[in-house]
Amino acid sequence: MNASSVLSLVREDLRAFAGYSSARSSALVGDVWLNANESAWANPADPQGSARRYPEPQPEALRARLAALYGCTPEQLLIGRGSDEAIDLLVRALCEPGRDAVLVTPPVFGMYAVCARLQNAPLLEVPLVDSDTGLNADIDAIIATALSGKAKLVFLCTPSNPAGSSIALSDIERVATALRGRAVVVVDEAYGEYAEQPSAVTLLDRYDNLAVLRTLSKAHALAAARIGSLIAAPELIQLLRRCQAPYPVPAPCSALALAALEPAALTTTAARVAEVKAERARLQQALQNAPGVRRVYASQGNYLLVRFNDAQRAFDALLATGVVVRDQRAAPQLGDALRITVGSPAENDRVLQVLTAGRAAA
Ligand code: PMP
């Protein structure tokens, strides 16, 4: 596939879109900066004046660090306000309203459908299939529906939120191959750090219609900093950058993210991920044997999807002790399910105290 073909998937009216030219995007050199209508003085609350100037549109030091972390080049990576922003950007740039469809695999993270609706993009739903091994993506149905329904974007969530299942790299390759020249396949790896499977970033050199989402919100514990990454072909990244807000990454957030990617912080993050995995196994084991629990799905994320005889009762019993979990019952396939985030050992004990004591049993 040549370099221009992924751009042929972008909305026709945007292919030559110039975007906004921001004060920080030029190659100008100077020591008196009077081109952005910034204040000449620092705010008293910011005595160092570190927030006085507009930030770099794509902070290069952070971009390089994130690229090294995820195994791509800086040119393949776009930093956004969480991966949420990347999802929105992709839908807006690729889907001609009223025509180009977005394919999702419910039950799944709701933002894909929200962004599709905002863009008036038709939504194609290929439900996960429940089996002994879990709630899994139906690869043949995804390919067939994407082709017949004219999908421009296919969202594959792996590990899947809330199901916890992952999609094999060979299956991701099958989808990308089948949809070459027709759709961009977005692999959402928001929970990738907790999974056994390697990242789909390794496939990017072979499929320019593939994009990968990563975030610092989960394993790196920086949800409030809103630092997400979209990794894709450089020409798509450049185009999406032109569609993005002028200064999407606040300077205090990029500084925090850079600090979080120092070796010592990464070592701590890796230890926490290992602890979450151990706690996930402990919780799963204990919940499987709890009264009123019908099924605990194996999970590659930092959460467990649990079916109950009476999910409302379990939800209320937890809430009565101050433990808030995610009610999944709005999803048609999950009328009896709750999603429970794996917390600290003490937090998980609180969950188990309620659920193993039979307070959720119907
Ligand atoms: N993808 C998935 C699967 C998620 O569950 C979430 C958040 N819950 C996101 C993306 C968005 O994460 P963020 O915008 O914080 O990067």
From TrEMBL:
It is an enzyme of class 2 (transferase). SUPFAM superfamilies: PLP-dependent transferases. Keywords: Amino-acid biosynthesis, Aminotransferase, Histidine biosynthesis, Pyridoxal phosphate, Transferase. The modification N6-(pyridoxal phosphate)lysine is found at residue 218. InterPro entries: Aminotransferase_I/II_large (IPR004839), HisP_aminotrans (IPR005861), PyrdxlP-dep_Trfase (IPR015424), PyrdxlP-dep_Trfase_major (IPR015421), PyrdxlP-dep_Trfase_small (IPR015422). Its cofactor is pyridoxal 5'-phosphate. It catalyses: L-histidinol phosphate + 2-oxoglutarate = 3-(imidazol-4-yl)-2-oxopropyl phosphate + L-glutamate. Belongs to the class-II pyridoxal-phosphate-dependent aminotransferase family. Histidinol-phosphate aminotransferase subfamily. This is Histidinol-phosphate aminotransferase. It comes from Stenotrophomonas oahuensis. The lineage of its organism: Bacteria, Pseudomonadati, Pseudomonadota, Gammaproteobacteria, Lysobacterales.
